[in-house]
Amino acid sequence: MKRININTAKPAQPQTKIMIIYTGGTFGMAHDANGVLVPFDFSLILEHLPTLRNLSLDLTVISFDTPIDSSNILPEHWQQIAQLIYENYGEQDGFVVLHGTDTMSYTASALSFMLQGLKKPVVFTGAQLPISETRSDARENLITSLEIAAAKKMGNAVVPEVCIYFGDELLRGNRSKKVESMHFDAFESENYPSLAKAGVSIDFNENAIHRTEAMLTLHNKINSSVAILKLFPGLTESVVKSITETQGVQAIVMETYGSGNAPTSQWLLDLLKQAIDRGTIIVNISQCTGGMVVQGKYQTSKKLQEIGVLSGGDMTTEAAITKLMVLLGEYNLNETKAKIVKSIAGELTE
Q1: Disulfide-capable partner of 319 in 105, 159, 171, 347 (CB 3.0 to 4.6 Å)?
Q2: What's the CATH code, domain 2-218?
Q3: Which residue among the candidates 16, 26, 322, 336 is catalytic per the annotation?
Q4: 26 catalytic per annotation
């Protein structure tokens, strides 16, 4: 990894130390002499963003040796980011992670479970247009993310959790979902309010911010033996069987209809029950972006409850998948079953 130190304070000593972790993505692209988009040299950040000098920050930029398109992000990259934050936690006041938008919600969700007991901000941001473009959203996203990461009240971080800043809104990372590929307001959090809105000033919704008294612990073991089963009209037995009977799969996130409803076809219930009896964890998540799973509300979900499918409440698919990976990496199946239905980092409403 490449490390760059940038002191933006003038002329006094910097007030706050923030680490920027650049993983890749649209944000950090700039045109070279031939007009081709190539990874941006962060040692030149003040040339692109001279207003950074007004923030009086001591910035440390860590850049992946080879920037990664977020479509290629893997759990091993989550581990690298989490390890970097954990190792530098004592000397930094906050962290800003620059990440491609396509899988940002997955990475932010994963880190919220990997960094338990967090008392400092970890703000994910990115851009829909490269920083070199005239109309790029990268500049405002970075400047505001740095302000949020540096914000303190009575000596404590204002937002001591993993979050995403994008398009004037700060969202809890494990409540977010990418919903837009063409507009600047790319992320939504349907089941939880914004943590802050940025306009002329940054207005923090302090009642919505997650806080903990626990000490920071790193949960850096990942078990990716999980799968997604998305229900749809016409889903066949052979397709379901190909997922539920795949060797090595330890947990399945099942995306159901509405408030957790599924077909009552006997073959489907039998396959799910057989998987559960073999020790596979099945978590019920709604396909709806808003609302929550309420198993037993209708007959079509009561059957799932009876055979041992677990309710994921109002978790997003991104949160459920990454939470299962972290729990399976750290705990046995019974402990994972108990913890998946409980809130760890504000990812579900209990």
Answers
A1: 347
A2: 3.40.50.1170
A3: 26
A4: yes
